[in-house]
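Show me any protein, fold above all:
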Amino acid sequence: MLNVLVICTANICRSPVGAQLIRDRAAGRSLAIDVDSAGFLEVGRPADRTMVSMARTRGVDVSMHRSQMVDETMVRRADVTVTMERRHARELVVLAPDVGHRVHTLLGLTDAGRTVPGHENLELWLRAVAEQRSAGDLMGDRGPDHIPDPYSRAKRHYRACLDTLDTAVGDLVELLDSYAH
């Protein structure tokens, strides 16, 4: 069983939805994937009400979600950790540098799925992807691999986030499917 960790800032908008999308898509493919999500701010907050409502219209239920804080154990346990922003990945690579090759932005990893040749297992492929990452790839807070936080913004930002997550998670689950057997 693969263990996937999904990270965003507060674990109340992007990462809970991303994690639930992975669960739903993996179940649809009968993949054995255990998914968790976390953030950096606080424990026990419910998912953002606007995100809950908008995700529900797409068949994604995060109404029972409660935030949790990421820790080193979670990062080490995960076969792959995907983040919404570069700064999240950077923090986790600093937290657990020996498993830093397993930590990627979601969009960066799905892009690598189109450009980095496959390997015999996920661990080796993730190492190959990380080897192509330059130090600058995790610098700054914005880049082409950034999924903007919609929290407290207009509904169009939530829709854009959900659209991005839906596509990226589809790509991620397809990629993981090739290593889950």
About this structure: The domain at 2-177 is CATH 3.40.50.2300 (Rossmann fold).
